[in-house]
Amino acid sequence: MDTLAQARAGVEPDATPTTDLAQLASAHSSPILGRYFECGWSHGEGHRLYDTSGRAYLDFANGIAVSALGHHHPAVTRAIHEQVDKLIAPCSAMGYAEPTVRLADAIAAVMPEPLDTVLFLNSGSEAIEAALKLARRVTGRPGIVAFRGAFHGRTFGAASITSSNINYRLGYEPLLPGVYLTGYPNAYRDHGGDEERAVEESLRQLRELTTSSIPATSIAAVVIEPVQGEGGYIPAPPRFLRALRAFCDEHGILLVADEVQAGFGRTGRMWAFEHAGIVPDVVCLAKAIANGLPLSAIVTRRELQERWGKSAHGTTFGGNPVACAAGLAVLETIEREGLVANAAERGRELMAGLREIMARDTRIGDVRGLGLMIGVEFVTDRTSREPDGATCEAVRALCADQGLLILSCGTEHNVIRWIPPLDVTSAEIAEALAIFGSALRALPRSAETAGI
Ligand SMILES: Cc1ncc(COP(=O)(O)O)c(C=O)c1O
């Protein structure tokens, strides 16, 4: 019996040596992909991920915020099985498939007005590409404004507005023309924690962009992650998002919210932009949308996509009926189980626990976030705020050794990101905090940070 069959049958895994997948992959699998773990994964059950030797890990990484309802969720698995028996092939060019049409309705129902029209695609990057194309064609303008530190994906258009790491751009220039990057309000790193100053400075840079580099009347879209993700889990101050909304309204610019990582209840609201009380013109969704199956979408008001025009864009696989059946189960589960509220409540517990740890450990410079999207930033000392990627990486590895999967992020790779499943329990939060605290205690401090 293999490990998965043993686990599902409730049998302890046997001690038979398992295939080393990393070794096997060295022959023909591409070497270019970065990996957090050199580990082979056998299966997932609830909030635990099992490696091929049968060891269980508490999964607070979720394939980077993808399996937001954990693994092998009964409602999602059932929906997938039922749809597989009916129709697998995507139908967008052929006509209509019921789960695809129904998921569009369901997403529109949880969007604020007037966002009522959904175009399905396959990945976050593809959603960004579609948003950029829509913006240019609908406005007839060339300019795209995005923020330094952002991650929007790896296809050419998405990479052109990405700057969280030079590796996403290196060797690919010239990227999309007409892109202008400006400062994101990072209060902790750039302004000693002063949010007001961060907002003022970013707005000043945006205004300067329009007087020095591109007139506001030539800008098609401003693209922003309401919580900067790969860049370090940095929520945009609500006042900044409101000012951006006003700027876009004043100049006829489309405001695009990239909710690929922050959306679907993760921040304690269905959409992260809701914390600021704004409504974007275009919302990009992916990751958690189908709990692991590839699916993404852009959502706009109907009139925008009508102006974009018939056949202005298209897709072979987008809106796959199996992925959309999973998506329906995800949304129904989020609503039935009150998971947006759970994200807010468990997020408060996690934040309080992490702040307690920070109070005892000067290697942590900042703990910030919204709901279940929290960043813990490591620094060599709190005054200089010098990023400490080495400690961050060591803590992450030690946590994995102790059975907790967490990931890092940040332009300096010095932030631990917390993205537990949306249905995480208080007991699991406590378990994860205990492992994190114990990993920090096990890690030798430098003489200076230990106060010696
Ligand atoms: C905010 C954001 N936008 C876009 C993307 C790109 O998504 P994908 O990897 O599915 O293309 C990601 C992926 O991490 C993301 O976090």
Termini separation:
54 Å
What's the CATH architecture of the largest domain? 3-Layer(aba) Sandwich
Structural class: alpha/beta
CATH topology of the largest domain: Aspartate Aminotransferase, domain 2
CATH superfamily of the largest domain: Type I PLP-dependent aspartate aminotransferase-like (Major domain)
Strand content: 15-25%
User: Share of helix among residues?
Assistant: 25-40%
> Which residues sit in consecutive blocks of at least 5 with pLDDT less than 50?
447-452
Q: Helical segment tally?
A: 15
The count of domains is 2
Task: Give the biggest beta sheet.
Answer: 7 strands, mixed
Strand order of the largest sheet: 4-12-11-10-7-5-6
**Mean pLDDT across every amino acid position:** 95
Instruction: Report the strand count.
Output: 17
Overall, the morphology is globular
- Cofactors, ions, other ligands: pyridoxal-5'-phosphate
CATH class of the largest domain: Alpha Beta
Specify Rg, calculated over alpha carbons.
22 Å
Structure description:
- The chain has 2 domains: 167 residues, Alpha-Beta Complex (Aspartate Aminotransferase, domain 1); 261 residues, 3-Layer(aba) Sandwich (Aspartate Aminotransferase, domain 2), CATH 3.40.640.
- 38% of the residues lie in helices and 16% in strands.
- Strands 4-12-11-10-7-5-6 form a 7-stranded mixed beta sheet, sandwiched between helices. Strands 1-2-3-15 form a 4-stranded mixed beta sheet.
- α5 packs parallel to α12.
- The longest helix has 22 residues.
- 49% of the residues are buried.
- The C terminus is likely disordered.
- The structure holds pyridoxal-5'-phosphate.
